[in-house]
Predict the 3D structure of the following.
Amino acid sequence: MNSGKVVLGILAGFAIGATLGVLFAPDKGTSTRKKISKKSDDVVNELNSKFNSMVDGVTKKFETLKSEATHLIESGKAKAEEMAENGRAKAEEMEARVKAATK
């Protein structure tokens, strides 16, 4: 599920709930405003928690991908160096054969 849709859904639910709460509240206006304020604080704290969890998850995935990419690069470098060394050795071997054949 898209996290943007989740946040939008939570905010829409909060707005609808707050509106209905004010319309149908049997309490005094002061008491109702305190309840709405407390509920909004709870929603903000929950959103902060979810956002922080999402950021932590993205950070962990990024670090994992970075580590894997570094490993692949190092592995590729080692393989390229090995192939270059093998190529040099074969070239030197061929050079020696050519020199031996031309003497």
Observations:
- The first helix runs from residue 3 to 24.
- Residues 3-102 form one domain.
- The chain has one domain: 3-102.
- DSSP finds two helices and no strands in the chain.
